């Protein structure tokens, strides 16, 4: 599966099969996490076979089921932390999709389980990514056009339109969340 195919196929999934990740997939994810932590100056950690993070009250509100594997996305507190989390986290989400896994970005509806991850004093958790074999492949949301989310027109360079296009395929983000993307002459 190519990255473009992963972008098109990916939708948020909150219900997972009660099936552990294979050793091969865990190794692939952990190797990529080492690389992304270095590149993004993050502290991403894969947690496997740990069911407590998605059993609390907020997780029930989020309708998570069998979310026993997750990725803690953390880093040093900084003005650009959210940007780096989004960029490198989405890299992991798309890698997972190419490996036959499903994911869900989780901002609030998880419990911090002591002893499952390590944080330095100057670090914070930005989000979790639930990961596993989905009971389904998820459901798509309303899709916006390139013109609806950008200032693209007939004279806009094709490279810009091609860059905006993946943002129209919102695999788990409601279309109302996508803001305007602009090309600026100069």
Task: Summarize the helices and strands and which ones pair or pack.
Layout: H1 3-9, H2 23-40, E1 45-47, H3 57-61, E2 70-76, H4 81-98, E3 102-106, E4 123-132, H5 146-149, H6 158-164
Antiparallel strand pairs: 1-2, 2-4, 3-4
Helix pairs in contact: 1-4, 2-4
| Strand order of the biggest β-sheet | 1-2-4-3
Provide mean pLDDT, rounded: 82
Portion in beta strands: 5-15%
Name of the CATH class of the largest domain: Alpha Beta
- Provide the gyration radius in Å: 17 Å
Largest sheet geometry: 4 strands, antiparallel
Structural class call reads alpha+beta
Q: Helical region count?
A: 6
Fill in the CATH topology of the largest domain: NADH Oxidase
Shape estimate: globular
Number of domains: 2
Overview of this protein structure:
- With 186 residues, the chain is α+β, with helices and mostly antiparallel strands.
- It has two domains: 3-132, NADH Oxidase; 140-186, no CATH class.
- The protein is built from six helices and four strands; from the N terminus they run ααβαβαββαα.
- It has helices spanning 3-9, 23-40, 57-61, 81-98, 146-149, 158-164; strands at 45-47, 70-76, 102-106, 123-132.
- Helix 1 packs across helix 4 and helix 2 runs antiparallel to helix 4.
- The longest helix has 18 residues, at 23-40.
- The N and C termini lie far apart (37 Å).
State the main characteristics.
6 helices
Short description:
The chain is α+β, with helices and mostly antiparallel strands.
